[in-house]
Design goal:
355 residues; alpha+beta; Phosphorylase Kinase, domain 1; Transferase(Phosphotransferase), domain 1; 2 domains; 3-stranded antiparallel beta sheet; ATP binding; protein kinase activity; Prot_kinase_dom
């Protein structure tokens, strides 16, 4: 006869003691604070080939080799249904550490939560593998997928002759991720080409993903319109202006980049609707994604959405793109002008920032 056992009570009793040292815990946890810190610090010794890659307004990013690699689920053999977990072996990862002296800020926790929620709900490419710690500063580090290509601005600089077919595909991929971020209940609020990362897969196809979200949904659509303009122009929005309050006032008053000559009309129409002055006049992320997919089909002559006029517009735009001087893009790119920073938006004027 099976005894009547209250498994809930047993589970709670076990969780009231640290699984590492057995110390009694005040709350239901797996380990005590001391053991957790020791486990995380031991993990810090697993990184080799540490290399500084970039510094933004709030964090530093390093490239490193993870000796053991992530846990992977593998079949026992090619024809076996039995699966087991094992380490995948050395792999390149990105380590992201806050610049502030606090050990673990609310913003960092929000970002980790955003990555995990989007990844598990929508199978996002923004993979957060876990946490580590800097043994010198005692600060928590996010361990993330490494995107070897860098940010999207680097791709636009290196590939100025990238065809419209590839550009539409990349924009649709980015908007799919942004749509998933919105579905998960987050907004980005710092969305630009510098926060879109890329790499190549095993077939040399481009893979793009959005980074740095959860720190700061209509404002994201406005920003996506600016990304579309940068895709079409090969320049950063408002590069001819100083990034100061005078520019901010002008943008609030309706200043927008001028569409580049030769850009397909259907593309310009979508772009300008994204940066409409009133948020309620902007399309949703789902609507933008669907329109981009339609433009891709038209450009690739996929029936039944094929349209001769639109195809000819993109074909003409491709021929004009081959004449673009890449040095002009490089000359307008000044990274220090585009690092995210906090500022007092009420200084000097009291206009509501309705972007």
């Amino acid at each position: 006869m099976i005894p009547n056992i209250d498994f809930k009570i047993i589970t709670e009793e076990r969780r009231h003691h640290c699984s590492q040292c057995g110390a009694e815990l005040a709350s239901i946890r797996i380990t005590c604070t001391h053991c957790f810190q020791e486990v995380v610090k031991q993990a810090a010794s697993t990184w080799t080939n540490l290399e500084f890659k970039a510094e933004g307004g709030f964090a530093k990013v390093y490239k490193a080799t993870w000796r053991q690699g992530r846990w992977e689920c593998k079949p026992e053999s090619n024809n076996s249904s039995v699966r087991y977990y094992r380490r995948g072996g050395p792999m390149e990862v990105a380590l992201k550490e806050e610049k502030t002296p606090t050990r673990l800020s609310t913003e960092f926790l929000k970002e980790a939560s955003a990555y995990l929620k989007c990844e598990y709900r929508f199978l996002s490419d923004n993979q957060l593998f876990g946490f580590s710690v800097n043994p010198e500063t005692d600060q928590i580090i996010l361990v993330m997928r490494y995107m070897s290509g860098g940010d999207l601005r680097r791709l636009l600089m290196e590939k100025p002759d990238l065809g419209w077919s590839d550009r539409l595909e990349q924009l649709a991929s980015v908007m799919r991720d942004l749509q998933n971020i919105h579905k998960a209940g987050f907004v980005h609020k710092d969305f630009h080409c510098g926060n879109i990362l890329w790499t190549r897969d095993e077939f040399q196809n481009y893979e793009l993903c959005i980074s740095d979200f959860g720190l700061s949904a209509a404002s994201d659509i406005y920003a996506f319109g600016m990304v579309m303009w940068e895709f079409s122009s090969g320049k950063q929005p408002f590069h001819e202006y100083d990034p100061d309050f005078a520019l901010l006032r002008s943008i609030i008053s309706g200043l927008r980049p001028t569409p580049v000559e030769g850009t397909p009309d259907c593309y310009v129409d979508l772009m300008t609707r994204c940066w409409a002055a009133k948020p309620e006049d902007r399309p949703t992320s789902e609507e933008v994604h669907n329109e981009l997919l339609t433009l891709m089909e038209m450009n690739d002559k996929v029936l039944p959405t094929f349209n001769d006029m639109i195809f000819e517009q993109f074909e003409t735009a491709d021929s004009l793109r081959s004449e673009i001087d890449n040095s002009e893009y490089v000359a307008t790119y000044q990274r220090d002008r585009y690092i995210s920073r906090s500022f007092n938006a009420t200084r000097g004027f009291t206009v509501e920032l309705d972007l």
